[in-house]
Specification:
Number of strands: 0
CATH superfamily of the largest domain: Cytochrome c-like domain
Strand content: under 5%
Structural class: mainly alpha
Helix content: 40-55%
Oligomer: single chain
Shape: globular
CATH topology of the largest domain: Cytochrome Bc1 Complex, Chain D, domain 2
Number of domains: 2
């Protein structure tokens, strides 16, 4: 228990400085990225705020995280039948960075929990983890308000669709998704029940960055 608490505190103390350093490094051209992102709009929305809960909001994610994901869809490290094909159609690494810069430049539209009954449990997991299962607090890596950690390529989770979040946690748990550094997400997700995933996802959906 002490190790989990200390890890969470250490991570949160260092969070602000890491995020600031990561955000200072801009990799792409947002204006060019806006044009290149036209083919992404059908699923993710013209401004990266998808309306379909099965597809993630990209708006407000850090450039570093988006570049990582698009690159891994292009090279097959992260697998999804639709996204692999779409990413392979991006011609150059610079185009990847420009698209990432565009989505990073627009704001995430606030989300909200669809099941308020789960929010209290979700907040407990997000802020304190699940001590008896050895699950660290989500806030340790994703920040108190869910804004993520650009330097570490940890995504923003505030306002994200709960349906999408649960699907990703389940994919990590099964090993279907395996592009997490050091198996961090896989190791955590394996210790979580579906009900716990749904609770924390509902809480994150209503977080404000």
């Amino acid at each position: 228990m002490k190790k989990i608490v200390m890890f969470a505190l250490f991570s949160m103390i260092g969070f602000t400085s890491f995020a600031t350093a990561g955000e200072a490094k801009k990799m792409g051209d947002a204006e060019k990225g806006k044009t290149l992102s036209a083919s992404c709009a059908a699923c993710h929305g013209a401004d990266g705020n998808s309306t379909n809960p099965e597809w993630p909001k990209l708006a407000g994610q850090s450039e570093a995280y988006l570049v990582k994901q698009l690159t891994e869809y292009r090279n097959g490290k992260r697998k999804n039948a639709v996204m692999n094909g779409m990413a392979e159609g991006i011609k150059t690494d610079q185009d990847v960075m420009d698209i990432a810069a565009y989505y990073a430049s627009v704001k995430t539209k606030p989300g909200k929990a669809s099941d308020e009954k789960l929010v209290a449990e979700g907040e407990s997991i997000y802020r304190g983890g699940i001590v008896e299962a050895g699950v660290a607090a989500c806030a340790a890596c994703h920040g108190p308000t869910g804004s993520g950690n650009p330097a570490a390529k940890f995504p923003s989770v505030s306002g994200q669709h709960a349906v999408y979040t649960v699907a990703q946690l389940q994919a990590f748990k099964s090993g279907e998704r395996n592009n997490d550094t050091g198996k961090m997400m896989r190791n955590l997700a394996k210790k979580m029940s579906t009900a716990q995933m749904e609770a924390v996802a509902e809480y994150m959906a209503g977080l404000r960055d």
